[in-house]
Amino acid sequence: MADKQVISKPAGQALLAAVESAHLRKDIPEIKSGDTVRLQVKVVEGNRERLQPFEGVVMRLRGGGINQNFTVRRITHGVGVERTFLLHSPRIEKIEVVRHARVRRKQLYYLRGLTGKAARLKEIRPMTSKQAAAKEAARAARIADTAATTVNTTDTSAGE
After folding, report:
1. How many CA atoms lie less than 13 Å away from 109 in the CB half-sphere?
2. Do the Cβ atoms of 37 and 96 come closer than 8 Å?
3. Which of the two residues, 148 and 37, has the higher pLDDT score?
4. What gap in Å lies between CA 35 and CA 111, rounded to an integer?
5. Predicted local confidence at residue 151, as pLDDT
6. How confident is the model at residue 1, as a pLDDT?
7. Which of 33, 103, 120 is nearest to 72 (CA)?
8. Contact at 8 Å (CB) between 49 and 64?
9. How many whole angstroms separate alpha carbon 88 and alpha carbon 83?
10. What single string gives the DSSP state of each residue in the chain?
11. What is residue 83's predicted lDDT score, i.e. its pLDDT?
C-alpha cells in the first residue's frame, strides 16, 4: 500500500484538460447573447438521421470548456420554443451567425415576456472593407498628427 502513488490534483487537472481539448470543436464562430444563429442539428428518427435547421436568438451562454452550452429561443406558430445545446456537441453539424444585436445584459430572459415588434433587438451591422479602411486611415492620420504636435512641442521647449 505504501508503494501506491497518489496523483496530485494539478496533474489530474492537466489530464482532464488534455482529454477535453481533444474533443473541443474548432469551427465554432464567436457567439454572444442577442445574436441570431442558424443551427443544423442532427436528428435521429428510427434508423435514419437527418439535419434539422433551428434558427433563433441566443438567450444565454453558460459554462466553460467542453461543458459550455447556449440557449436559443425562437417563436414557432405563436409559441416560444427554447432549446439548450452543448456548444461542442457532435449533434450540431453547423453553427452560422445570421446577425449580431446590441444587448446590455448577458441573459435575455426578458424576451420571454415580449411578443411581436417589442421582442426585436437592435442590430449591429458589420463594417464593409471600405468603411474599415477609411476608419483605419483616419486613425493613422490622427496618430501622425498627435506625434507631430508632440515633436513640435518638444523642439520648442528644448530651444528655450
Report:
1. 1
2. yes
3. 37
4. 13
5. 66
6. 53
7. 33
8. no
9. 15
10. -TTPPPPPHHHHHHHHHHHHHHH--S-PPP--TT-EEEEEEEEEETTEEEEEEEEEEEEEEE--GGG-EEEEEEEETTEEEEEEEETT-TTEEEEEEEEEEE-SSS--GGGGG--GGGG--EEEPPPPHHHHHHHHHHHHHHHHHHHHHHHHHHHHHHH-
11. 95
Unique residue bearing C-alpha cell 446577425: 99
Q: Rounded to 10 degrees, what is the CA torsion of 44, 46, 48, 51? A: -30
Do 144 and 138 form a contact (C-beta atoms < 8 A)? no
Instruction: Return the residue matching grid coordinates 496523483.
Output: 7
pLDDT digits (tens, 9 = 90+) for 80-97: 999 999 999 999 999 999
Residue 87 burial (10 A CB sphere; 0-12, 13-18, 19+): buried
b/e map 125-137, b = 16+ CB within 10 Å: eeeeeeeeeeeee
Kindly report the backbone phi and psi dihedral angles of residue 43, in degrees, each rounded to the nearest multiple of 5, phi listed first: -120, 130
